[in-house]
Structure formats: C-alpha cells, structure tokens
UniProtKB/TrEMBL annotation:
Its EC number is 3.5.3.12. It comes from the Bacteria. It comes from Marinobacter oulmenensis. Keywords: Hydrolase. One of its GO terms (molecular function) is protein-arginine deiminase activity. Transmembrane segments: none annotated. GO terms for biological process: putrescine biosynthetic process. This is Agmatine deiminase. Pfam families: PAD_porph (PF04371). It is an enzyme of class 3 (hydrolase).
Amino acid sequence: MLTWPHPGTDWASVMDDVEPVFLDIAQAILRFENLLISCEFVARLQQLERELNNFAETRGLPGRVVAVPAPANDTWARDHGPLCVDTAEGVRLLDFRFNAWGNKFSWEKDNALNSHLAGAGVFGKLSVQAVDFVLEGGSIESDGQGTLLTTSECLLNPERNPAMDRAAIEQHLSEWLGADRVLWLDHGYLAGDDTDSHIDTLARFCAPDHICHVACHDPDDEHFGALAAMKDELQAFRQVNGAPYRLTELPWPDAIHDDDGQRLPATYANFLIINGAVLLPVYDVPQDEEAIRVLSGLFPEREIIPVSCRPLIEQHGSLHCVTMQLPAGVIEL
C-alpha cells in the first residue's frame, strides 16, 4: 500500500524529487506482488494506474495495480494504513486511530483513509474494524510468533493514549494484535525523527530469534550514548525459550542535513520485506554498500533492492514509513 504524494501535502515544493522515489518503490513491488495506491488528485492517480500496470504487463510481471481516489494529509502509509492480524477465523483488518504522532500535524484525512478504501470496495467482503486506540504501524515490530518490540518513548507518549499506562497498553496490544508479550526499549532515538522513536527506525526482527539494529560507534556523535544503551537493552532481552537474541548491527550512515542545517533521520533499519525481496533505503553515502552487504547476509534467500531515499528523509521518514504490507487475498482485484 502506497499513499501517493500530491501538491496538497508538505511534498508540494519537492514533488519532482520525491515522486521518482515512489515510482522506484512501486515498480520494485510490482516485480513481486500487487500494489494498492491511493491519491487525492484523481487525474494523477488514473495516470499512475495506466503507467504502472503497463510497466508490469509489458515486462510479464506478476503484480498489478489497484488505484483508489482518497483524500490524505500526507504519505506515511505505515502509520495510517490498516494493521492486519491473522486469526483462526481469517484476516482481521484493524483501523487504529491516527493523530499524526501526538497531534504534531494535521491528521483528519489520514485517519479516515482506511474507511475510504473500505467504502471503495478495496477489501472485498473483509470489513475494517475501527479501534479506539492510537497506534501507528511503525511503532511496533512483530516476530510473527506473539512477541512485539516497541519503544516506551512512543507508546507511552501522553499525546497518544494519555489515560493508559504500560500495563493498559500491553493489554490492548494483547487483545487486538494477539501479543503474548511486549519487549520495551527505553533508549534509542534518531535526530530529526517526528515519531518519538518509532521502532522501525531503530531495531527490526529479521527472524524470530534475530534482531538487527542501528549502532553508532562515534563518541562525538549525539546518538552515541542512547544507541549504546539501546544495544545493552537488546542484549538483555530473551526469547520465549530463555535464549538471548542474535543481534546484528546495521551501518551508521554519515550525518545528512537539510538546507537549514537540521540533521535528518537516515537509517538502514527502515527496510521493507516483500515477496522474494527486501527494499533497502540508501542515501548516497559511503555506508550504502556496507548496508547492502549486511542485508544480503541477513536475508540470503531474498533479492536486496536498494532504493535512493534521500528525498524521503527531507520529511523525516524513509522507505518502510511510506509503505504498508497487506496479506495475499486482502485486496479485491
């Protein structure tokens, strides 16, 4: 799922830079699977549908595009898209409340997007269940076996669910997502990040027993202490069987700043796993090649596809942040 940028978003002044990134992501996805895109500008959406379906068809690719007009404040599908849970009764589509990371920006259109998609028949006979709980997809990481990884800075932020403490939030995650346990990181952040330390910028499961994470070894870097403390926490975590997790450090990219000198949240942890491949954000810095090498080792049976995401971090997110995966059979083709 991609929520396409349009001139009514904060991307307006850099559309010529950011649209090629979305096109690269879309074309990479179509090599392996179907793609759902929405856009507020109907004429652009129709053009994209024709161009991308033609791209897939002329190359004999398995993916096809479903395009739906829908209003949106921004493009961060990871956080306003539906969360899908596999149950004994089938897939549940959950529409958690989205309030732009604690009311930092406008959010009303994004919060209604899943209802628009459902109303357009995108999900066929599957209903989308509204959940009165603020939760962004980028704030949780699942091993697929009942363990969630998250950060206290994000989920305990009082601008999200102010009446809930850690125990109450864990109860909601258990009730709605089937979490048997939650591993909380109390340390770790990226400068320039608007999300209050989303886990998908910091640490990711690459197998149920294996976590990769960002790491900084430069004592002069502002992140050094916090990320060292985060690594200590990861080392202390235990699997359900009591064994420690295997840990792999991801490269630390050179600092990237915007035109105003603000540091931008470049991270290799913001990769996207799709059928047969991993889309890896790169930033035109020397560490990109090492990131490709590390990810190739983490996912040896998948193709690693680098996508230049330097324009995305201008708005303080990256590749995983602008995408949301949906299980096979959810989209009505």
